């Protein structure tokens, strides 16, 4: 196993990789609850949807572990699930079966263009400074998620201000601050597994305080240990090709395709840069392998009845714990598989425990900003657009496409259009189409 995953080449070991895999799982296990909860609004039964979510994560992560051999966990994407539930079904009136069918078609197309090397070619065409902007943007996005999950940042009721500080004196926020300080102290002292230790100790403290009567509405003690997975039959292979293959459904199909396309490229490059996997040109060697893993996982997930699946930015938490090989992802996949039978325990990890970990990872990822060329405004402006839109719109795809669109435009108006590679021009055009069809909030 050590030889297969090349532990010696990466200077790692079983303990480090295991801790990294557990950390990644703890920071992304919320998807087991959140994804079925969102899709339930579209009429997809929560029980079977939970099983579909886990199966997609297990299959995708196992392919990533053994084929791509990268420490990148896979699961159904946030954002794409909300698009299917609230836009495709509730707003446009289509069936959830049509939405899942669109996901399947997108996955099949991704498998094909990955096998033909098209996705890898596009990834290599991304400008160097934008690649590091992805890292910074992902870091700020993770931080924003962590701040919201912990209650440190809230949307003020009845206020024109979009965000504000939460109630610092509330028990849940204080627990989150405790977890953040604990993780920070452990990392400063270079304690291995600092993030994982912080998550677990904060969770245990939350359970204890809840048990003695403290009001912690978001902390729920598990009512049981083992659960029997429900059947997938109600949602598996429930496709509606007749609706999808119509002119009116084309914008939906295109939007789903483009959202996954840009999210995957940005996330892979972002977490790869943090792990030190990029070469001297800023490219990820053999990027087609992790791309194929997420494409196949999307197909499998759609067959099971869930939405677009891809590399998770929370993998950065495991990378910060030292995860460098596919063994990290193997551990995460194994834990997802066990979650099929121990869902009550897994879903009991409170937000105040895993939220601080996302903030910590964001702090560490901001480091990549020093690799962006601040002396060249034609490089800095697109990078800036990428960073601010990734974090401030709460959507990675919006930020990534903002960079793709603005880069060739800025270069052209500066008289430096020759510096833009053909692939970057095509990415800019694709991103422009994305903005034309994207369902904007009113």
Spatial arrangement of strands, main beta sheet = 1-4
- Outline, from the CA principal axes? globular
Mean pLDDT: 90
- Low-confidence segments, given as residue ranges, are none
Helical residues, percent: 55-70%
Distance between the termini: 53 Å
Find the count of extended strands (DSSP E, 2+ residues): 4
Radius of gyration (Å): 21 Å
How is the main sheet built?
2 strands, antiparallel
Task: Offer a few descriptive terms.
442 residues, mainly alpha, two-stranded antiparallel sheet, 4 strands, globular
Give a concise summary:
The chain contains 20 helices and four strands. The chain has helices spanning 7-10, 14-28, 31-40, 46-68, 80-91, 96-115, 118-125, 128-150, 171-188, 194-211, 241-244, 250-275, 288-304, 315-320, 326-339, 343-346, 351-365, 377-392, 396-413, 422-437, and strands at residues 74-76, 153-154, 164-165, 309-311.
What does this structure look like?
The protein is mostly helical. The chain has one domain (7-437). It contains 20 helices and four strands. It has helices at residues 7-10, 14-28, 31-40, 46-68, 80-91, 96-115, 118-125, 128-150, 171-188, 194-211, 241-244, 250-275, 288-304, 315-320, 326-339, 343-346, 351-365, 377-392, 396-413, 422-437; strands at 74-76, 153-154, 164-165, 309-311. The protein has a two-stranded antiparallel ribbon with strand order 1-4. It has a two-stranded antiparallel sheet with strand order 2-3.
Helix-strand layout with pairing:
Layout: H1 7-10, H2 14-28, H3 31-40, H4 46-68, E1 74-76, H5 80-91, H6 96-115, H7 118-125, H8 128-150, E2 153-154, E3 164-165, H9 171-188, H10 194-211, H11 241-244, H12 250-275, H13 288-304, E4 309-311, H14 315-320, H15 326-339, H16 343-346, H17 351-365, H18 377-392, H19 396-413, H20 422-437
Helix pairs in contact: 2-15, 3-4, 3-5, 4-13, 4-15, 6-12, 6-13, 7-20, 8-12, 8-17, 8-18, 8-19, 9-10, 9-17, 10-17, 12-19, 12-20, 18-19, 19-20
């Amino acid at each position: 196993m050590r030889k297969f995953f090349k532990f010696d080449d990466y200077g790692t070991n079983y303990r480090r990789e295991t801790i990294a895999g557990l950390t990644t799982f703890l920071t992304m296990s919320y998807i087991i609850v959140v994804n079925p909860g969102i899709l339930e609004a579209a009429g997809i039964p929560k029980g079977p949807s939970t099983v579909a979510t886990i199966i997609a994560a297990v299959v995708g992560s196992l392919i990533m572990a053994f084929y791509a051999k990268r420490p990148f966990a896979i699961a159904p994407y946030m954002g794409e699930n909300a698009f299917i539930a609230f836009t495709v079904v509730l707003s446009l009136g289509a069936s959830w079966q049509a939405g899942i069918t669109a996901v399947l078609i997108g996955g099949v197309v991704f498998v094909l263009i990955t096998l033909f090397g098209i996705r890898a070619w596009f990834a290599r065409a991304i400008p160097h400074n934008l690649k590091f902007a992805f890292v910074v943007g992902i870091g700020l996005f993770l931080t924003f998620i962590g701040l919201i999950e912990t209650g440190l940042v809230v949307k003020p009721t009845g206020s024109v201000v979009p965000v504000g500080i939460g109630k610092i004196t509330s028990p849940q926020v204080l627990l989150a601050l405790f977890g953040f300080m604990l993780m920070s102290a452990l990392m400063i002292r270079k304690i291995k597994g600092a993030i994982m230790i912080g998550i677990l100790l904060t969770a245990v403290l939350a359970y204890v305080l809840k048990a003695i009567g403290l009001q912690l509405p978001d902390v729920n003690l598990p009512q049981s240990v083992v659960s029997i997975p429900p059947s997938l039959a109600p949602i598996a292979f429930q496709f509606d090709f007749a609706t999808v293959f119509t002119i009116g459904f084309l914008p939906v199909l295109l939007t789903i395709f483009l959202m996954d396309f840009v999210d995957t490229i940005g996330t892979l490059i972002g977490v790869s840069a943090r792990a030190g996997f990029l070469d001297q040109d800023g490219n990820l060697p053999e990027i087609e392998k992790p791309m194929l893993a997420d494409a196949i996982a999307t197909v499998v997930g759609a067959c099971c009845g869930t939405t677009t699946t891809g590399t998770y930015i929370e993998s950065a938490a495991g990378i910060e714990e030292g995860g460098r090989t596919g063994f990290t992802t193997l551990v995460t996949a194994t834990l997802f598989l066990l979650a099929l039978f121990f869902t009550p325990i897994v879903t009991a990890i409170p937000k105040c425990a895993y939220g601080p970990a996302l903030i910590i990872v964001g702090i560490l990822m901001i480091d990549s900003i020093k690799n962006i060329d601040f002396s060249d405004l034609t490089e800095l402006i697109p990078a800036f657009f990428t960073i601010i839109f990734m974090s401030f719109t709460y959507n990675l795809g919006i930020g990534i496409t903002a960079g793709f669109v603005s880069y060739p435009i800025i270069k052209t108006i500066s008289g430096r259009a020759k510096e833009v590679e053909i692939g970057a021009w095509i990415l800019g055009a694709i991103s422009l189409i994305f903005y034309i069809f994207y369902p904007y909030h009113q």
